[in-house]
UniProtKB/TrEMBL annotation:
Protein's name in the database: LLM class flavin-dependent oxidoreductase
Keywords for this protein: Flavoprotein, FMN, Monooxygenase, Oxidoreductase
Membrane-spanning segments: none
Gene3D superfamilies linked to this entry: Luciferase-like domain (3.20.20.30)
Coiled-coil residue spans: none
Amino acid sequence: MSLEFLWYIPNQVTPGHRGEPVSADHNSLETLTTQAKALEEHGWTGALLGTGWGRPDTFTVAAALAARTSTFEPLIAVRPGYWKPANFASAAATLDHLTGGRVRVNIVSGKDDLAAYGDTEGDQADRYARTREFLQLVRKLWTQQQVTYRGEHFQVSESTVEPRVVSRPNRAHPTLYFGGASEAAERVSATEADVQLFWGEPLDDVRERIQRLRALSDELGREHAPLEFGLRITTFVRDTTEQAWAEAEAKVAEMARLHPGTFADPHRRTAVGQQRLLDLAARGEVLDDNLYTTPGRFGGGGAATTWLVGSPEDVATSLRKYRDLGITHFVLSDTPYLREIRRQGDRLLPLLAE
């Protein structure tokens, strides 16, 4: 199976995201389009667009960037409580039609400022039960007509999405990515997702999770094509190993100065996957060959919690080891975003294509 390499575009209201230089036009259409076009020019398939209340609407940003590009594929993060499944299925089918099949979707079930847009909290089991129904119904609406569905959370009657999603080589509909490390999340992924995304965990941990998810798929009677796997991680690449580590350690020292043990994200320690990453620091500052865990101690969250650090050759070697475990989708990033899109596209991706 071929490998796919995507990046990350930070649709943020506040400038300076993860070390990106502060500028007044950081989230303008021109700035984001420049990044999307650079991705096309430097070997990337597309980019993940994050979601959350208080950020620019992810679907709107994705549609705007798709209109200004020709091959860029937005991986659009969406929340089941923000969208109703039929509304989302229709919107995504329309954008997929207009772009010639360039839409990808990342379903997010983690906590957010739900009350701000009229959603309710629910316990973990309830959240993932709703996510399961969302995935089931969106897929049905993309692949069937006159759909009637009666779930606990969502219902539709004789619903047909127009325009129809066109089945294309290697995908019957927009690929459905999903993350989550809890038992409830993994049971949803094993049966309903197309791609399970992992954060930057050590190789042995990823191997164990892939084995468990494959076994769960069999146990729970997965009805779709075999589950695929992806890695979302920061790749801190410099010309040499020595330069990479010197700059990585200097950047973490600056993070420690700015964030001495305080974090803005109230959900930082409630998500199982995030907590798994934070716990890695207790096992060592560097795991495997070059998985740097210290950023998570000083404000690094999500993909910025752990970094793969090194020369292009070092990082390519590490990514190949994840590939050998079964990872075929890679969502990479580092800041400044535009510089790293170009540099890693030119220096790292050719090594992974060999």
